[in-house]
Structures are given as structure tokens and as C-alpha cells.
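re: that complex we talked abt at group meeting.

here r the seqs, copy pasted straight from the sheet so there may be weird spacing, ignore it
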Amino acid sequence: MDASTFRAWIVEAAQLVIDNADHLTHLDAAIGDADHGINLRRGFQAAVTMLAETDPATPAAVLATVGRALISKTGGASGPLYGTGFRQAGKTLGEDADVSAVQLGAALRAALDGIRQLGAANEGDKTMVDALGPAVRAYQAVVDAGGDLADATRAAADAAARGLQETIGMQAHKGRASYLGARTIGHEDPGAASTVLILRALASATAGLPTEGRAP
Amino acid sequence: MDASTFRAWIVEAAQLVIDNADHLTHLDAAIGDADHGINLRRGFQAAVTMLAETDPATPAAVLATVGRALISKTGGASGPLYGTGFRQAGKTLGEDADVSAVQLGAALRAALDGIRQLGAANEGDKTMVDALGPAVRAYQAVVDAGGDLADATRAAADAAARGLQETIGMQAHKGRASYLGARTIGHEDPGAASTVLILRALASATAGLPTEGRAP
Amino acid sequence: MKKLINAPDDVLVDALAGVAAAHPSLSVNIEDRYIVRAGGPTAGKVALVSGGGSGHEPLHGGYVGYGMLDAACPGEVFTSPVPDQILAATKAVDGGAGVLHVVKNYTGDVLNFQMAAELATDDGVRVEAVLVDDDVAVENSTWTAGRRGTGATVFVEKIVGAATERGADLASAVALAREVNDRSRSFGIALTPCTVPANGKPGFELGEDEIELGVGIHGEPGRARGKLVPAKELAGIALDAIHADAPLSGDVLVMVNGLGGTPLIELYVLFAAVADWLSGHGVRIARSLVGNYITSLEMAGASITVCRLTPQLAELWDAPVETPALRWGR
Amino acid sequence: MKKLINAPDDVLVDALAGVAAAHPSLSVNIEDRYIVRAGGPTAGKVALVSGGGSGHEPLHGGYVGYGMLDAACPGEVFTSPVPDQILAATKAVDGGAGVLHVVKNYTGDVLNFQMAAELATDDGVRVEAVLVDDDVAVENSTWTAGRRGTGATVFVEKIVGAATERGADLASAVALAREVNDRSRSFGIALTPCTVPANGKPGFELGEDEIELGVGIHGEPGRARGKLVPAKELAGIALDAIHADAPLSGDVLVMVNGLGGTPLIELYVLFAAVADWLSGHGVRIARSLVGNYITSLEMAGASITVCRLTPQLAELWDAPVETPALRWGR
Ligand SMILES: Nc1ncnc2c1ncn2[C@@H]1O[C@H](COP(=O)(O)OP(=O)(O)O)[C@@H](O)[C@H]1O
Ligand SMILES: Nc1ncnc2c1ncn2[C@@H]1O[C@H](COP(=O)(O)OP(=O)(O)O)[C@@H](O)[C@H]1O
Ligand SMILES: [Mg+2]
Ligand SMILES: [Mg+2]
Ligand SMILES: [Mg+2]
Ligand SMILES: [Mg+2]
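got the structure back, here u go
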């Protein structure tokens, strides 16, 4: 997986976020402050712009650029969290021009660890971690079983989607949603939903296929 | 017409104003500030209370008491205007214990003059004067033709009602309604409407009959 | 109707109790319905008394204090005060140098203050009255009750308050009040109606994209209904109307005033548009206010008031003032 | 959505332009999104920097000035500011004695200020942060992100601002800020939702007789939905919750704060109810604020914040302050 594929991932993720921004905001309205879609749209648009301007040469540089852009432009809780995730992932990739399925697994793991360290959320707290955690494990399982990049990223996206479903039954213990206590039960977590979008984009970028969830 | 009949008039007028307060306020909402019914209810309730407390002996004293109460408690434009009307009317009645149809005519005329002097409204300006003016003339015509008190007050009330209808076509030139300019055309004037109620109460008090417009 | 109240008929009395509890600098006579400075009358000073319907807070009670009003007479919501309370307040603050009634030009206010002034004069108090009529939305003709008094009331109370604090006599206080009023113009825009508690229903209805242009401060409809356009255009509509009536130039005092339900962030957006228009017309903002200073209950919307300053007026504007709603210099 | 704006995405920039035009005492960096005192950094003084989402005006920009904040960092409406702007503001006001970040306890604010502090430290600026978390509606447990920061933020900024103006060092400024926060509690009630401009739809829906109890300042629903009851009962609900969490006694500083769409007359009605409750519990109102000080766009409702004063805190509260939204003593 080379730098251009990583860029394709982010461009696709940005498009998915833009197409689903209202939905993400709608989810955030139910248990948060109705801005998650607005925040991420702003952040990913900035990331795409910065990639176009700086045209980073390596996968690591792409992820570092995206992380910086998300931190600088997103705001809210999701900005620093996603931004840190991308930056930590990038740090694991060194100077390599091409990244293997195994390397990407380590990068995704690093993203999860970075987000968990910054946000101190555990799985079950009804956050993006409830989508990203299962995704990282599913990805690793496919790779361990000898599957390829496309299979692994597809498995990660599907596991994230199942994780998102799991958040419906959870009570939020982190972020703004936690203020609503039991009233959060019965709603999807917005950040988990956006994590699904980002991983779907990864799957289609690695498979070179169109992504589900794109606005026609 | 003795003091007790004058008191009966005011008690009846107060009841009519209370029963129709929402309607008067509704009319004021269309071209004013939605408080005419509220103001007059407050004023006439105070008048009835003050009459009960002070129990004035003469017709003149009854009207003076009512005028003071309306001025002290009503507020708005209608308070000073109606209050002045009743006070001026009272001043014409001297110490007499019983008031003739002719005397009442002079009293009503004095009320009209007092209101016109204070408010500087002419007929056609879309105010209470457009109900009271015709009423005073109609009253006088009946008395000149030898009619009795009941006939004259009935004629006054009917003329006031016709005057109220006339206000619908008028553009307001006085009071808050004048701020709305041509937008006032097509609406009854609230003060003209309350004048009709007060004169209806007078008619039924003098005739000793129930008044139309009473809430069941 | 959704309001933080106990009962519609208790709003005024309960609010006065709150004013009394919140502001030790004020003395509130709940029985007679007036608010004066806790210190009592200032001997030898011309006393400034204003009043009108309630629902315009902080006007007028919030402007009682050093450098501004001596007394405020709050009527029921949107209803003129009655002569009795104006008379009581006038006597309570008379310091022997006479009392100036600052009256917003509404028939009800005018008549009630007029009756109170007559009664006070009978009781030997020297009383003068000045009418504030700054609202350009109402043309001042024999076909109307004359212009409404709106935002300029705040300017008159502040500037004349400063002058009387310095010993201006009754005649010059009257002249100064007239000057401030003559130099000031206002225009108001409503995005939503408001509801008088005792009434319980909104004064009018507006569609999602409709606004009322040229509204006053009593929840009444304006001169015309219009479409909701960007703040820049609304500022233009208001300032064009003001400019057409009394051309703006030189240094001005500008107030972008919220009608009660508009968030401050929107008032700043509107102020930016006002500033653009003024600089585009070579007018300099020398002094300004942005916030809720003369309101119409919870109505969403804003009014713009501009006063063409003189060096003397600017200097009096800057003079120390210490009231609940306007305070600087001490 | 009916708002006095030009375009939903321009609200923040347009409002900042308005702040710049309205307040010569402030210097607004629209590019980097921060507001500082026009005078520049005060050498040798600990600088106070706060920030958060916009839509809470006058918080924070309205509190920049002598005796209060040195800088404010406004994020998009209801969205935490980003590290870049916080870093830029921090460097702009550093007077060599260190910078104190006053951070309302929201995950987004905490994380963004934390990242900015790390970057500033890398650049050699001494930075400390204090979290404000006064909202008793959120129980402070490992099962939540901790209490929200609401009304007490105003108290912290005013009191610590006064202390830093007098030369308090960074460590004692931190300690004082924590003391004010520890002694303060808040509770908020919403009568209507509000609409984020970029979103266009209300954050929640409420029936004609419904209210949200225990709301914060971001248009979010509260801890529970309730029925609209008289102001006296609402004051009881809020103060009982505060009292249960941290028993009230002695002298207190009370703020009855409007959330943006509630008229001042209603806030006074509520203040009267608050005063009744407090005197009934032997608590004395030593200082108070009534008005819109920390808002949630156009939301109708109010929050009540109580701080148990010490003589030192009262004295620092009374110290001169000169900001657009809070001013006395000069
Ligand atoms: N401590 C945390 N750890 C991990 N994710 C979190 C944490 N707090 C919040 N989030 C995620 O952030 C999302 C909200 O992001 P966003 O709405 O953009 O920011 P904010 O909550 O500041 O408005 C939540 O749905 C949740 O998934
Ligand atoms: N100058 C005037 N002369 C006579 N009647 C007037 C005048 N101004 C107003 N009115 C009457 O008063 C009525 C309004 O009274 P009200 O609503 O109680 O007071 P306000 O207009 O101060 O709210 C109008 O409908 C009109 O009939
Ligand atoms: Mg959010
Ligand atoms: Mg009226
Ligand atoms: Mg009225
Ligand atoms: Mg947010």
C-alpha cells in the first residue's frame, strides 16, 4: 500500500464524511451537541486540502499530515482524538514507500492505543473506541490467517460496523454524551459511526472498489 | 336615575368588560399591543371595589369615584381617557340625588368633550370617540323627541355599535394603532368596542334588563 | 406560553422583589411601584424620572443610579404606569431643584405622565417633561400619534443624567434632553413575536422566513412585513431609513440593541454590518453599545439607534455612571 | 432557523469583526481566532487565557480586559477551539510570568487545551491549566467525563483575574482558581432548545409544558425532562440540588444567569425566588449578578450559580474590572 493509496483512502474518507455529515450531526444531536458531522467535515476537508498542497511522499508523511490537519481544524473531542490516531499510526511506518498488510495492522493498533491513551476510554464506554477496537482485532485475525490487505480492511470495516451496533445498547461514560447518563442508551455513538465511515473508505481504497454509503 | 342605578351601571359594565376582556385584548393585538381587555378589566374591577368601599351617595360622587379608580388602576391610554370621561360627566351632576334624562345627556356630552380634549381625537381617527360621538348625538335626539331614559340609552348603545362598525374601515390616526398606518384598516378599534360595552351596560341598567354580550 | 414566572398577574411584583434583592444600591417601593436610589433624593439636584410599561428591562429600573435616573416607574407589562405611582416617585426624588420626566412618546405614557405632572405641580413640585420620539419607522405626521420613543431613551437618560449630576438646572436639562432626542434616530426589526404574560398568546404570527420591519418595543407588528435577509441587508434597511430621515455624518454613538430573545453573538454580527455601512458612508463610530438595553420581552430581533454626537454629548456620555445596567467610571 | 446572520459558516468570523468594531479596548485576531487586550501583554503578570465553543457570549471574549482575562479563544459555535489558536493566544499574552488556562471541563476543551499547552511548553512558555467543573446536574464519577464547567467560569475568571492583576504568581493563581471552583456549584434549566447555525435544526424538541432539567450550555438535553412549574419551584429544584451536593451557608455570591432567550424581567422573578430560598436557609446574598453572562445561543431558560464566599474572595470580586461585559471600579 503506497502513498497514493493512503491519499486515496483519505480523499474517500473525506467524501464519505461529507456525504454523511448531516447523519453524524443528527446522531450527535441525540446524545451530544449536534456538531460531530460539522466538525469532521471541516477537519477532513482541511486534511484533503493540506495533502493537495504538501503532496507528502511517504505513507507515514500522509498520515502525519492528516493528523496535523485534523488537530488543527476539527475542534471538539473528535479532532484531537482522530488527529492523534492518525499521527500515532504514521509514526509506525518509518520511511517506507510501500506498506504491508502486517505494517498497516501495527499502524491501526497504534492509532487505537493513541486514542485510548488520550481519551482514556475503554471499550463499552460508547465511543469511537467501540468501533475501532473490534476493527483492529478483526484486521489482525485476517492477517494472522494469511488474508490479504483487501480482506483485512474489509473485515475491519465490518467489525467496526458491528461495534457501532453494539454502542446502541451502551450508556456513555466518556465525552459529552456521558452527561445524559441512561438517556444515551438506544442511540448510536456518533464517533463510532464516523469510525465506520473511515474504515469503509480504507477498505475500498485498498480494494480499489467504490464504497457503500456514498451519496449517489 | 339615582346613585344605586349609576352603581348598577358600573357593576354591569365591569361584568361586561370582564366577560369580553379576551375579545378586547384580541382586537388590541391586531392593531395595538394586546392589552386593552387586561387594562380595562383591571380598571373596572378597581372601580367596583372602590364603589363598594366608599359607597358614594350621589350620582356625581359615583362617577367621580369611578373616574378616579380608572385613572389610578387602568394604565395605558384608555385609563386616563375613560377616567377623565367619567370625572367630567360627574362634574355636571352637582349634588342631585336623582338625575333626569336631560341631565344624563349633558353628562355624556361632558364625557365626550373631556375625552376629546385630553386625547385630541376627532371622529374618523379610529378611537373610542367614534363610538361615543354618535352615541351622544343619538341619545340627545331621542331626548329632544321626548323619549325616556331607557329609549335614549338604548339608542346611544345602538349608535355606538354602528360607530364601532364604522371604525373597521378607518385608518387609525391616534394612539398606538396609528403606528401601523394602513394596516389598521379592516379591524375594529378596541376602545370603540369597549365603549359599546359600557353604553350597553348603561342601557340595561336604566331599563333594568339583562344585557346582551354577557357570558352565560 | 413558556415563562420563568409564578403567575401571569404576579410578574411585575415578583420582578420588583427580585430587583430589590439583587441591587442594594436601589430602593424599591413595591406597594407604590417605583424604584429610586437607595440614598434618597439628592438635595439641589434636578431629579430625572422615567417610566413606562414593563417588559423592556433593563429599561427603566436598570438605569436608576448615579449619573442616570433618580426614579423609574414600571407599569404592567407593555402598559403605561398610572399617575399615582408617577406622582409618588416624583415626590420621592424631588431634591428641590425640580423634576424632569423623560417620557417615551406613546399616548398612554404621555397622558399618564401628564396627569401625574399636573398633580405634582398642584403639590408644589416643579415638573417638566421631555418626549422621546426617535423611531423613524413611524412618520411624524398629524396622521399618527407621532414617532415612538425607543432606543434614544437610553441616550437621553445617560447624557441628561450626567448633566444633572453636575448641577444642570431644570431648563438646561430640558434643552439637553431635547437635543439628544433630536440628534437620535432608531429603527427596529423583529424575527419573532413576543407574548404578554397576562395575554398568553403571541402578539402576531410570522412565517419561518418572515420578519417585521419597523417594530417598536411593545410586541406590536411593524410598518411592513418582509423576508428574512442577511444581516448586512437588514443593517442597510435600518440605516438607510435613518439616514434618509436625518443624514448621518461625523462622529456617532451607535447602539445595536437586542429585543430580548436574540443571542449576543448575532448582535455582534449585526454590529459588524452596521460598522461597514457607516464607514462606507464616512460616518465614524465614536461610542457604541451592543447588547440588550431596551427590550420587548423575549422577542427575537434588534433595533439600531444612532445619535449624531457633539463633543459635549460625547463628554457627557463618558461621564461616570453607576447603575445595574450601565456602569463605568466608578 | 431564524437568525440575524449572513451565512451559517460566517457567524464566528462576522461576530469577531463586530467585537473588533465595538470594543477599541480589545484587539481581535480574526485570522488566528483570538481576542486579547489592545494594550498587548502585561509584563510580569500571570496571563489568564480561556476559551471554548462560541455561542456562550459574553463568555469568553466579553471578559477580556483589566482585572479579568488576557485572552479568549472562541471555537466554532459549541465546538472547542483548536490547539493552534490556543497556542497563538497563549504566546500573544505571555508576559514572562506564565500563562493560566481556564478550561471548562468538556472532553473537547480539555484535549485541545492540553495539546496547546504541550506545544506552548515546547516553545518555552510556562503554562498551567485549571478545570472548571461546577455543574451539579452531572454526577462526578468514573462513569462520566466529570462535571461540566458552566457559571463558575465567570467567577473564576473575575476573581483570579483580580489576583493576577495584583501580582499573584502562577502557583497561587492556580490554587485560587481551584478554590473558587471548589466553592461554586451550578444548575441549569431549559424552557426551549436552541439551534446551532451550521446545523439549522433545534438540538431537541420540547412540548408546550415541558422543560429540561440539568442542562449545560451546549444546547444538549438535560439529565431529565420535567413539567414547567412556577419559578419558585424551579429555584427550589436547582438550589436543593446544589445544597445537597455542597451545603450552602454564610455569605454567597449568586448568579441568576439567562441562557440567551429569556427576558431580564423573568430572571428577576427567578432571582426573587432564589433570594427567598436562600434566606429561608439562613444563607446571605453578599454579592450577585442577574443577566446573560454565560449563554447557550437563543435558548430560553436560566442557570443558577452559587459560590460560598470568603472575605478574600469577596474582596477580589469587588476589585476593579473593565471588560465589555463586566465592569466596575473604573
Ligand atoms: N474520551 C473519549 N475517548 C474516545 N472517544 C471520545 C471521547 N470523548 C468523546 N469521544 C468521541 O467523540 C465523539 C464526539 O465528537 P464531537 O461531537 O466531534 O466532539 P464534541 O463531543 O466535543 O462535540 C463521540 O461520539 C465519541 O465517539
Ligand atoms: N388620543 C386618543 N383619543 C381617544 N382615544 C384613544 C386615543 N388613543 C388611544 N385611544 C383609545 O384607546 C384604545 C387603546 O387602549 P389601551 O390598549 O388600553 O391603551 P394602550 O393603547 O396604551 O395600550 C384605542 O383602541 C383607542 O380607542
Ligand atoms: Mg459534538
Ligand atoms: Mg393596548
Ligand atoms: Mg398598552
Ligand atoms: Mg462540540
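couple things i noticed - Chains A and C do not touch (no CB pair under 8 Å). The first helix of chain A runs from residue 3 to 19.
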